[in-house]
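<derive_structure_tokens>
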Amino acid sequence: MRKFLVVLDDSRECLNAMRYAALRAAHTGGGVQILSIVPPEEFQTWMGVADLMRAEARERIEAHFEVFAKWMRDKQGVNPELVVREGDAVAEILAQVAEDPEIGVLVLGAGTEKHGPGPLVTAMSRNSGNLPIPITIVPGDMSKERLERIT
């Protein structure tokens, strides 16, 4: 089964990337893998409480994931899987793609600010030659109706 890999973060454009991945998976019989990446610097300030901070970060991620997962299951019939990794975002995305041969497309949401599409889209575009799969970049301000029409 081909999976659409989508990155879960706190950006507004993440919502459109999630929608696109779920709609494409539903229409093509694919799956969705949601990747959340925790930057390692979050845990370096207080080594004694690093495990507690990791557990709290995981709880936040799982709660955020469950909102998207419920919509995907209820509206699209797609049951996404969650993967949480710790490290540099680009390195972790590349590693996840390398480790899971079922991933067929990386889906990213582009920001709408004047200073560019966002650091992740910019960095992954630069690294696109190292990826064995295509990247789909979904405009952050694309309407839900337009997304539904193009998927």
The mean pLDDT is 90. The first helix runs from residue 13 to 28. The helical segments are 13-28, 50-76, 89-99, 119-126, 144-150. DSSP finds five helices and five strands in the chain.
